[in-house]
Design a protein that fits this description.
The protein has four domains: 122 residues, 3-Layer(aba) Sandwich (Rossmann fold), CATH 3.40.50; 115 residues, Transcription Regulator spoIIAA (2-Layer Sandwich), CATH 3.30.750; 118 residues, Transcription Regulator spoIIAA (2-Layer Sandwich), CATH 3.30.750; 56 residues, OB fold (Dihydrolipoamide Acetyltransferase, E2P). Helix content is 35%, strand content 22%. The protein contains 15 helices and 20 strands. The strands form six sheets. The protein has a five-stranded parallel beta sheet, sandwiched between helices. The protein has a five-stranded mixed β-barrel with strand order 16-17-18-20-19. The chain has a three-stranded parallel beta sheet with strand order 6-9-12, sandwiched between helices. The chain is globular.
């Protein structure tokens, strides 16, 4: 089908960095078909909802927006509406049965088929049959010609072999598949030519990366040695797969940024066992101590679940104690919500009341805000280098950049600085970020 220069596409993304990355790849796949991109769904020729079901709130928000999109077709009868991502994989054909206005339903493994799905106008049932196996799964290699922000995500694994009792990822993203190390290096080299200075290696459990003899640590080492990339990050690991080799890489490789997101989920061995996390509280602390010995100024961030099944006061206090002991730089924390199809939903009672969950979540977040503020205040007056990634989130006309330790710095700047690495002095600590002054331009 010949491309048309007058087709527009609206992509709405919910959820994690992996979904954001998938949406970016979809834009690259659709551009050769003649699509340009818009922020106005009601006028778009193609709407794609890239959905998340990992958290209950993201799931319900996606379902709500999918439902509302039926009204767009009243004014644009030829509009194509597609749903992809984890909700599509989880709900499957039931989604197209519930929402009769949907034209396409496809899972994360079928994104590479998107041009064919659009061109052939496949029905949802046909699209859902295009499930790739582990053997034929293909990573999308398209790279933009220019990346103004100077930062990019690069997928190195998809899926997860872990069996965390609360998590639906293995059901909706499948088993682990690792990408060729040579393909990763080739993509990063191409991204450098497009203006990228910092890459984040992505995977549901990125520390499980294995391709032939390569591990995540050796892949990071090769990227550092064989490409001109300046900064390397990765997310998200499972602590059980953090190896001594990877910790040593933090000590020896200045291109590996001094930050690790290390999801703990709980500070209680009882809860960790029930969650099937594969490590104990003491093992987690051993990893933290080893990382700080290898890279004394490393920033450590984490995830926590408040009110998991059977969590009593004792188990919750152990989580509070872990926050105090580790002093994380920041955390994400959520109330537990059962996800359909998980072991926890099948085997455990969701026996913690909503009020208790909210109280525990509030206490965790209040404590962490104090820790984060204190850490940020200790940095005031210091200097550092930020990669300028875009306008600040306050909409104040300023810009923001990221320090190697992953802290956000807001500053007065201009669009010419976008994608540059600049030296700044940190002038003020905020709750979740810093303010700074550019020292060189």
């Amino acid at each position: 089908m010949p491309s048309s220069p007058h087709k527009t596409c609206y992509i709405r993304t919910f959820g994690c960095q992996m979904n954001e990355h998938d949406s970016g790849k979809m834009r690259l796949l659709l551009a050769p078909l003649g699509y340009t991109f818009t922020d106005e769904p009601e006028a778009a020729d193609l709407i794609i909802f890239n959905t998340c079901t990992i958290r209950e709130k993201a799931y319900h928000k996606a379902i709500s927006e999918i439902g509302r999109s039926r009204f767009f077709k009243c004014h644009h009868k030829n509009q194509i509406i597609g749903v992809c991502g984890c909700v599509a994989q989880q709900d499957g054909r039931a989604l197209s049965e519930r929402f009769g206005h949907i034209d396409l339903v496809f899972g994360p493994d079928q994104i590479s088929e998107l041009p064919r799905l659009i061109q052939e106008q496949m029905k949802p049932a046909t699209a859902l049959d295009l499930i790739n196996t582990l053997e034929d799964y293909s990573f999308i290699n398209e790279v933009p010609k220019k990346v103004e922000s100077g930062a990019a995500f690069v997928t190195v694994t998809k899926g997860c072999n872990c069996s965390c009792s609360y998590c639906i990822v293995p059901s909706v993203r499948g088993r682990e598949v690792c990408r060729s190390d040579d393909d990763v290096i080739s993509e990063v080299s191409s991204l450098v030519k497009a203006g990228v200075k910092e890459v984040t290696l992505l995977g549901q459990n990125v520390t499980a990366y294995r391709y032939n003899d390569e591990t995540l640590a050796s892949l990071v080492r090769r990227l550092s040695d064989e490409t001109e990339i300046l900064r390397i990050r990765f997310t998200s690991p499972n602590p059980k797969d953090v190896t001594d080799e990877l910790i040593t890489e933090y000590a020896n490789n200045p291109k590996l940024c001094p930050h690790i997101h290390l999801p703990a989920q709980s500070g209680s061995d009882t809860m960790l066992k029930k969650m099937r996390r594969g490590y104990t509280r003491e093992r987690y602390l051993e990893i933290v101590r080893a990382l700080r010995a290898a890279r004394p100024k490393i920033s450590i961030t984490s995830d926590f679940i408040a009110g998991f099944c059977g969590e009593g006061d004792k188990e919750f206090e152990e989580t509070v104690d872990l926050l105090n002991e580790v002093c994380f730089d920041s955390i994400f924390a959520f109330k537990y919500s059962p996800r359909p199809g998980t072991r926890a939903a099948k085997e455990f009672d969701d026996d913690i009341t909503k009020d208790i969950k909210e109280a525990r979540l509030g206490r965790i977040l209040t404590l962490q805000r104090k820790i984060t503020r204190a850490k940020n205040e200790s940095l005031v007056g210091q200097t550092g280098e930020i990669l300028v990634t875009g306008p600040d989130r306050k909409g104040s006309g300023g810009f923001m950049g990221r320090l190697p330790d992953n802290r956000i710095v807001n500053f007065a700047g201009n669009a010419s600085m976008l994608g540059a690495i600049l030296r700044v002095q940190l002038t003020r600590a905020l709750a979740n970020s810093m303010e700074g002054k550019v020292l060189d331009e």
